[in-house]
Design goal:
DNA-binding; homodimer; seven-stranded mixed beta sheet
Chain lengths: 217, 217
Amino acid sequence: MTSEIKKKESQVPEPSLRRMPCYLTYLKLARRDQQEFISSTQIARDMGVDPTQVTKDLSYTSIVGKTRVGYEVNTLIDVLEDFLGFNKLDKAYIFGAGGLGNALLHDHKLDQYGLTIVGAFDVDPKLIGTQIQGVPIYHVNDFKKIKEDDVSVGILTVPAEFAQEVAQTMADGGIKGIWNFTPIRISLTEDVVIQDTSLYAHLAVMFNRMKNLSDKK
Amino acid sequence: MTSEIKKKESQVPEPSLRRMPCYLTYLKLARRDQQEFISSTQIARDMGVDPTQVTKDLSYTSIVGKTRVGYEVNTLIDVLEDFLGFNKLDKAYIFGAGGLGNALLHDHKLDQYGLTIVGAFDVDPKLIGTQIQGVPIYHVNDFKKIKEDDVSVGILTVPAEFAQEVAQTMADGGIKGIWNFTPIRISLTEDVVIQDTSLYAHLAVMFNRMKNLSDKK
DNA sequence: CAGTGTGAAGTTGTTCACAGCA
DNA sequence: TGCTGTGAACAACTTCACACTG
């Protein structure tokens, strides 16, 4: 019992990770405005968050700030992009090319954030064999045949009832990270990272907060 | 100081709200499979979460479960949809019809989750005057002229540098809830609800977890 | 006794307070 | 004085333990 291995060592808290792309965007705007140095206090003020939190979040990266001056904008941008993996392009397949999947294929900005979609899979005969934004669409059954080794990410945008099954197919094919847009909890082995991003979950929160506000009056 | 009014009374925790659409999807699949009653224990097992949590989450709605039987699937679905506001359609405008905005216009499922997009605003002359999926696209400057009273939600999918400005325009026009897809923290008066949904934030979390995993080996 | 519902314990993340520095 | 960086206090959420119910 004493030899219990400490599993999660020093994982970066998820909320911190989520804030980092925000800092990055903010910093890029600051750079555009010719700012050379920036303090966590200023970031905090402009973004409306707690200054200590900014400091703590940034301290998870390797950067160290200069007292009274702050951080150098350019290196901070580099460090953050590196830390978040936004400057090395990961390849991804998209599963489910209708609706949301289609939409993501049109979102050119993904490339700026480290993800490039190299292929799509669907079951709709009307889609298979065509291309969207230069990305070819294949039949799901051909996944194993087509799958290339250096594609590590799968984007899951199929209808809910197929989510678990398709996720399993992805995992079997060697996909290491699944970006799950369905409102289904996927269960797979530990070695596959699953990132849930249900848009409808966020909608639910927004509606609830709006109702709270109008009830209060 | 003693008369300090308790501000947030009994707000439903955000994590709970986020899980609810998941339960809903799960329940709809259960209904399709002819299940009439369901227990929180079963939901928990199938979804891979803590049973107590399911019970607690459901207790925020008005439903009460029968001991040893669980909850009636149909009424639970109704209660959840009602609680989340998914059965009364809110009207929304979308700001920024390129890339992601375009994608959302193609996501038919939004209607099922209580949101219907009735108009889009952009600045691109090539888009203005056209329609996407039957939704007309106007120039942002015409927003005040066009805005109808019963549209309460604005979807923000403009480039980061215009986010704050466009959000302000929305608020001035009487928008009550802003679904913010930009990685920018928007600051407005308290009476506008802002729901941040930065896809790139989730991407950051996924990349980080994937790196952790491959480092461990 | 399998399941609901709840108060208490534990964990995680946020905010505060302050030491150290230029 | 204005800033970084950190350890301690606090708040939010999750998990555990258990009383209760048909």
